[in-house]
Amino acid sequence: GFIDSVVNLSAALGGETVQFRWRMGSDNIIGSTGVWIDDVQVTGVFSPEPTSTQIAGLASGSVFPVGTTTNTFEIEDAAGNMVTCSFDVTVNDTIDPVAIGQNITVQLDTDGEVSITAAQIDNGSSDNCSIDTMTLDITDFTCADIGANTVTLTVTDESGNSDSVQVTVTVEDSLGPELTCPANQTIQIAQGATYTVPDYFDLDEASATDNCTDPLTDILQTPAAGTELSGGTYTIEITVTDASGNEATCDFKLEVEELLSVGDQTLTNQSIILFPNPTSGEVTILNRSNIALQSAIITDVNGRIIQTVNLAGLNGEMKISLANLATGLYFIQISSENTSIVKRIVKK
């Protein structure tokens, strides 16, 4: 008859030829007489097929990122036996970015400084994956950098690949100097006399500063210092130019006013002399006329009386102390009984 037999086989035998032997009777000696069954083909013992499930990583056909991705699977057979296996997919990016830069021109500010960023230099740099950083070897410029400067832009991707390009950064100073002119002035002179135009920068009445050029030496004053002016109203114009050619101009009104005298009793620049002028502390009034002087009134450029001196009929010379006066320009009105003259004093 037939006897059902259950044989547990290893999954590795699927599809293979397996020998089975049955011994009949009670003979336990292999070589004894009996009936033997050989060459039994075993198939289909693994149905249903084992199932495979991915539990980590990316599915087949996915785009894998740069780096290492671990893919893990579970395999389970019909009997509930389970095993796992894993493998790594490693993607390396060895392609450098493409650095593209552009030349730029920048302007210095009022402090003589300017800064730039990589974004100003970048002109469409690219990478096959993604750009991590863009850096410049020089970002800060001063007046010392006016003109063309070579700057290097370096582009680095997330894998550490990099590329560099050099560009030209042109630094310009387009700001003019800051110029201040004196206020409008009125000067009095004796009838027939003239007024000598001073250098208003030397007197510190005019001033100028610049973000880069220090000191400013290209100064034009019209009328120039030393010009003799008779009575009338004049426009004094001052222009300063910095090393980059930027200009600033200002002007003010100068009124030269003649004082009327009585008869021949006239004080002139030739008859009344002040020395030394400029002075650092003391000035001498020398009266070369035959007119007795009475007083001297010292005023500042705004007409404020600073000091009054009694000349008491002076016909010779007299020293006046200016030690208490600050450095600057002053005017001294020297008077007799019937006439007067105004002269300029520079205190150093």
Report on this structure:
Helix content is 1%, strand content 45%. The longest helix has 4 residues, at 118-121. It is built from 1 helix and 24 strands. The model is unreliable at 36-40 and 42-46 (pLDDT under 50).
Q: Estimate what percentage of residues fall within beta strands.
A: over 45%
Structural class: mainly beta
List the helices and strands in order. Answer: EEEEEHEEEEEEEEEEEEEEEEEEE
Cross-sheet strand order for the largest sheet: 4-9-8-6
Q: Between the first and last Cα atoms, what is the distance in angstroms? A: 143 Å
- The number of E-state strands comes to 24
**What best-fitting shape do the alpha-carbon axes yield?**
rod-shaped
Q: What is the makeup of the main sheet?
A: 4 strands, mixed
Radius of gyration: 53 Å
Mean pLDDT value: 86
Number of helices: 1
Helix fraction by DSSP (H/I, runs of at least 4)? under 10%
Unreliable stretches: 36-40, 42-46
